[in-house]
């Protein structure tokens, strides 16, 4: 899509003037890798701050993601290492502040700081010990992505591509108790990476709003990581939100890199099915991991400083500026207000 100067100006102005949030970024994993394996310090300020500021970002929700090589034996230790590294980075960069609720997020923005909220991307650090959930809650974790794309004690994840496997399962008994305890503590549940069986189990077993923090539309890109129209409608009926994922594999089928307008098409589809108030950003930027492993970049939106291009795509597809303000961050903030408070 050709972006006119007028459309660029409108999109960039919205990023400057509105609350901007991302429901999913692997920041803690990146910080820990660079500190623990790379021996570096002051990573956030050096590598990320300028471009995040350029995108007008007010809130980052960082996953605690555990690589396969640390599962299962090292999952708990690695999660705690990530949190420890985060605190070292917070001490070195006052621009970033850990928040535990919406009042703290709003206060961070008022002070000109970037709010950071923590979420599990797979509950492997818990093993099958429910007591650890309270410990992580006290450490600031407020979101629970129940699975990554593998099986754990709570549920089965969905693979990126079909694999030879046995019978799938939904939520286990531990997963059902985990959902209950999360709702009791005031934590939100995240269905991205959860398989279809687990999605519908969660709908049946819980009552509060939930999120798909980084998933697109299966009607447009038929892969298991995306949601069906029926799932999008169920999420919206519950009062949840859905974050647009920048990875080209979930934006369109085929080789090569998708562009922001193709991702905007998923936003338009969510609006058609459920309404724009159920849409947010969930970029899941992974190009840094790909480039580090000598693979081609695949994020339709390269990073936060280019995120205005997705906003321009939404405007071009008929989103009003009020609807875009919601997508930029207010929809996610409203969801958090109804879940973690």
Write structural notes for this entry:
The chain is an alpha/beta fold and 341 residues long. The protein has helices at residues 5-17, 27-37, 43-54, 75-92, 102-110, 131-138, 173-185, 196-205, 229-237, 248-251, 260-274, 287-292, 308-316, 321-339; strands at residues 21-25, 59-64, 96-98, 114-121, 141-145, 188-190, 211-212, 241-244, 279-281. Strands 1, 2, 3, 4, 5 and 6 form a 6-stranded parallel beta sheet that branches. Helix 1 (5-17) packs across helix 13 (308-316), helix 2 (27-37) crosses helix 4 and helix 11 (260-274) packs across helix 13.
Summarize this entry quickly.
With 341 residues, the protein is α/β, with parallel strands linked by helices.
| Largest sheet geometry | 6 strands, parallel
Rounded average pLDDT: 97
| Beta-strand percentage range | 5-15%
Number of helices: 14
Report how far apart the termini are: 39 Å
Helix content: 40-55%
| Radius of gyration over all CA atoms, rounded | 19 Å
**Based on helices, strands and strand pairing, what is the structural class?**
alpha/beta
3D shape: globular
* SSE order, one letter for each helix or strand: HEHHEHEHEHEHEHEHEHHEHHH
The total count of strands amounts to: 9
Poorly predicted regions are: none
